[in-house]
Amino acid sequence: MMPDDNAATFGQSRQTEAASLQAERRVKRPAESRGRAYVLSCSSTFRDKVMALAARRGVSTGDLARAVLLLIPKGVLARAVDPGEPPPEDREIVKLQSGPTKGRSLKRKPRLQLRLPAGHDMAELRRALSLALDLAAGEQEIALENDADRQTKAESGRARDGQSDEINSLRRIIDTIALRPLENGVTSRVEALHVLGFSPFVTPDRASIRSRFRQLARVYHPDAPLGDHVLMSQLNEALERLISF
After folding, report:
1. Rounded Cα gap, residues 42 and 88, in angstroms
2. pLDDT per position as a tens digit, 15-63
3. Sign of dihedral through CA atoms 171, 177, 182, 188?
4. b/e map of 174-188 (b: 16 or more CB within 10 Å)?
5. Which among 75, 60, 26, 33 has a CA at the least distance from the CA of 129?
6. Is the dihedral of CA 58, 61, 63, 69 positive or negative?
7. Using N-to-C axis directions, what is the helix angle for 61-71 and 44-57, rounded to 10°?
8. Torsion-angle region of residue 35: left (phi > 0), alpha (psi -120 to 50) or beta?
9. What is the reported pLDDT for 228?
10. How many Å apart are CA 56 and CA 49, to the nearest integer?
11. Which distant-in-sequence residues (6+ apart) come within 8 Å of 63 by Cβ?
12. CB atoms inside a 10 Å sphere around CB 162
């Protein structure tokens, strides 16, 4: 036996549930599409959210599930997460209203009642209602695409793939021709010219030396994508040796 206040709370839930089913029955549909009543076990939190959404939209819980089942492709729905059965501690209190056990209280799993065409399983219906909640909360979106949209997306994907191949090729080229650190550091003017990319037979002016240093520093600074701490140190050594030469 459970406290009567719990039973009263469940009574309010039952009234809302009954009103939802009555609204469902009032909708005129062909006899072959009226289907069957589903009793869907779910957590009380999930049930309350679904029923609150249905109340806000002025529809039944079955209408929410039906809308998702009609609009969302089966493959997408199959990937949605099933909220699952309620945990063992999540039970609601039912006070029997008739029969030999009238007045007796018992516990049962929280549930939703829906009327839909036959052929759905419980996990599919929970996923549909879960997706309805996500859509209403803005956590999921339905993308509308026509053939032109799909063709444009495919072409964009192929272009990105081509750009990626080109970028990877350029990276390999850069890696091949990239400056390698001198084993013993910069110990002479010739080595300083080499590190900054000058011929050993030229005498660049200070402006040219500083310009070349800035260009290479953007590439080899440790914070840059191709950054190298050792090379950056040798660039600084080369600059100092050539400027002070």
Report:
1. 11
2. 556 555 555 555 455 544 457 899 999 999 999 999 999 999 999 999 9
3. negative
4. eeeeebebbeeebee
5. 60
6. positive
7. 90
8. left
9. 86
10. 11
11. 24, 27, 54, 57
12. 10
Q: Please list the alpha-helical segments (H only) found in the chain.
A: 4-26, 44-57, 61-71, 74-79, 122-137, 147-177, 189-195, 206-220, 229-243
Q: Which amino acid is present at 41? A: S
Quick check: 55 and 47 in contact, CB under 8 A? no
Query: How much is the pTM?
Result: 0.50
Distance between CA 42 and CA 47 in Å, rounded?
Answer: 6
| Rounded CA separation 219/213 (Å) | 10
Cα separation, 236 vs 227, in Å, equals 14
Give residue 31's pLDDT.
Answer: 47
Q: Which residues contact 116 (CB under 8 A, 6 or more apart)?
A: 35, 36, 38, 62, 65, 66, 69, 125
Task: Say how far apart CA 45 and CA 27 lie, in whole Å.
Answer: 27
With the CA atoms of 165, 171, 175 and 176 taken in that order, what torsion angle do they form, in degrees rounded to the nearest 10? 50
Top pLDDT among 141 and 49 is at 49
* Paired tokens of 137: 């909360």
Q: Which residue has the tokens 């050792």?
A: 230
3 state DSSP class of 5? helix
The alpha carbon dihedral of 202, 206, 211, 216 has a sign of: positive
